[in-house]
Amino acid sequence: MASGTLPLEEKIDYCEAAYRQEKQPCHFRLTPLADDGIDAALASRGYGYFGETEVRLRTLDAAIRPGQGPKVHTYDRDSFFWRRGVAALTGQDKIKQAVFREMLTLIDLEIHALAILCGKEIVACGFGVQSPKLLGLFEFAVHPDFRRRGFAAHIVQHMLTKAQSSGVSHAYLQVVAENEIGKAFWEQMGFEETLYRYHYRTKS
């Protein structure tokens, strides 16, 4: 957790070389734990600023009443049907789909892969990663034709209820700071506390 002993510029050079070897643009995610001066140093190298994000926290200390709504379906992490639905709703291209699939195989924790169907198509989805005391919420999306029906809230409540019954004490998520609609929704779901913020610096 310490800042290390190498000069900052040398560390940045090392990271850039690693990305260059993989023929990828170099990205830095800067949290409150980032080295002092790194933000200004990256800006001076032409790195753009984007993706300011809030990490929000909710304590699961009160009974959560499952919401009313259509059936929430649970899938295995290997379900192609569920992954295809998530990709369609979140706009994943083929590269991002491959990354998401690989990520799922590497997670050594309990997975919540949830969806609501209309006929045989997924119209709302959510994804959770659960450790003994902590639940992370990701990949929530609803088809435009099915918004304003409480589908996302229904999936959230379903996931939180199950996690709480397993002894989970806190849930967290990430929401882009400029996404006012998203922030308002998550506040309604009880995620009012902003634990910290982070942002990215990237060079194309």
Key traits:
alpha+beta; eight-stranded mixed beta sheet; Aminopeptidase
Write the layout of secondary structure elements.
Elements: H1 8-21, E1 26-30, H2 38-44, E2 48-59, E3 73-75, H3 80-90, H4 94-106, E4 110-118, E5 121-130, E6 134-142, H5 151-165, E7 170-176, H6 180-188, E8 193-203
Parallel strand pairs: 6-7
Antiparallel strand pairs: 1-8, 2-7, 2-8, 3-4, 4-5, 5-6
Description:
The protein is globular, with a radius of gyration of 19 Å. Helix content is 34%, strand content 32%. With 204 residues, it is an alpha+beta fold. The two termini are 29 Å apart. It has two domains: 8-46, no CATH class; 57-198, Gcn5-related N-acetyltransferase (GNAT) (Aminopeptidase). A hairpin with a 2-residue loop joins strand 4 (110-118) and strand 5 (121-130).
